[in-house]
Design a protein that fits this description.
Elements (H helix, E strand, L loop, with lengths): L1 H13 L1 E2 L10 E8 L6 E7 L2 E6 L5 E6 L5 E7 L12 H14 L5 E6 L5 E5 L4 E5 L6 E2 L1 E2 L2 H8 L10 E6 L5 E6 L4 E9 L2 E3 L5 E5 L2 E3 L9 E3 L4 E5 L2 E6 L4 E6 L5 E6 L1 H4 L13 E7 L2 E6 L14 E6 L10
Parallel strand pairs: 1-17, 2-6, 11-15
Antiparallel strand pairs: 2-25, 3-4, 4-5, 5-6, 7-8, 8-9, 9-10, 12-13, 13-14, 14-15, 14-16, 17-18, 19-20, 20-21, 21-22, 23-24, 24-25
Length: about 325
């Protein structure tokens, strides 16, 4: 028994990732609370031309254009008529749990990310159905026709197995013909699909990365402990893929073709300041935009109050790291 227990502990410890060298810290420039989001739960951000767009995982029939002219941002509702969701190949058990949860929390579609191409098309990922909705500048919204191989391969690689831990973010290239999706946790992963005429399909394989295991929360987190490695959003900048590693409180730059990590930056020192903390025992950052001057990070606080009493969604502006996002370690 003792030997078995020791071996089990050894296996557990080897699955916990601890950074050997701390990631450089990003610096907050400003913070903006958002008024007018009905569901309140900010789960995705996208920069489309001059407009900033947002989604809430509690709202199925609308997205939001953000008026950013004042310090407090106003969410302007844009209604969308969502057609019937296609079958993505998820098993009945997962789909039934999504259906049941929608009566309790709202949001059967569970919108978790938004992105846009250079033509102004917006793309929204439904975590509840592992599907992507395209919302053009004019005309009706339609669901992308995605090969069932995507979900099949993802599940075979250990992704999309847990309820409420499916696709948590997406990003598309400016040309609108290549898309990356982030599987959230247990295990977490990155997938890429390409548009081939009317069908979005795998280019050889869909899964670029699949990994499980635990990692330590940053030292600034109260009573830090090992938590599942996760992704909560994606951004594409200068041909590089940037992941929001929520439980690690960091942004990581990755090769867009292989998903290999090149460098990471931490935002823990800023967002875990005492006045900015929330009572939840995990990271709450769910929206990411990386640009030449910095990054936007949006917080989904699940209606919980911040230490200073703020209950509205908030978006933080961070300065670009020293040397820019392309800097080498």
């Amino acid at each position: 028994m003792r030997l078995g227990f020791a071996l089990a502990c050894g296996l557990l410890l080897t699955s916990i990732t601890v950074s050997a060298e701390p990631a450089p810290q990003l610096r907050v420039l400003s913070g903006h609370v958002i008024d007018g989001m009905r569901g309140g739960n900010l789960s995705g951000l996208a920069q489309c031309g001059n407009d900033l767009w947002a989604v809430s995982d509690r709202d199925d029939g609308q997205i939001y254009r953000l008026d950013t002219r004042e310090s407090v941002w106003q969410a302007q509702t844009v209604h969308i008529d969502v057609p019937t969701v296609p079958d993505s190949g998820l098993p009945w058990g997962l789909k039934s749990r999504v259906w049941g949860a929608s009566f309790v929390r709202g949001g059967d579609l569970d919108f978790e990310g938004i992105t846009c191409d250079s033509a102004g098309n917006r793309y929204i990922v439904s975590e509840g159905h592992a599907a992507v909705l395209q919302v053009p500048p004019t005309g009706p919204a339609t669901w992308l026709k995605i090969s069932p191989m995507m979900v099949r391969e993802a599940r075979a690689r250990g992704l999309l197995l847990q309820f409420n831990a499916l696709f948590e973010g997406l990003v598309i290239n400016p040309a609108g013909d290549r898309m990356w999706l982030a599987a959230e946790r247990q295990g977490r992963g990155l997938l890429m699909i390409k548009r081939q005429q009317t069908l979005w399909d795998c280019d050889g394989g869909c899964v670029l990365l699949s990994e499980a295991g635990m990692e330590m929360q940053p030292e600034q987190f109260p009573r830090a402990k090992p938590v599942p490695r996760d992704f909560s959003d994606l951004s594409l900048f200068n041909g590089k893929l940037f992941t929001l590693d929520r439980n690690a409180f960091q942004i990581c730059r990755r090769d867009a073709q292989t998903a290999k990590v090149e460098r990471c930056w931490s935002y823990a020192a800023e967002l875990l300041e005492e006045s900015r903390r929330y009572s939840q025992n995990y990271g709450l950052e769910e929206a990411l935009i990386v640009d030449a001057d910095g990054a936007w990070i949006g917080v989904d606080n699940n209606f919980g109050a911040r230490a200073d009493g703020e209950v509205r969604p908030v978006v933080w502006r961070f300065a670009a790291p020293e040397g820019g996002w392309s800097a080498r370690p």
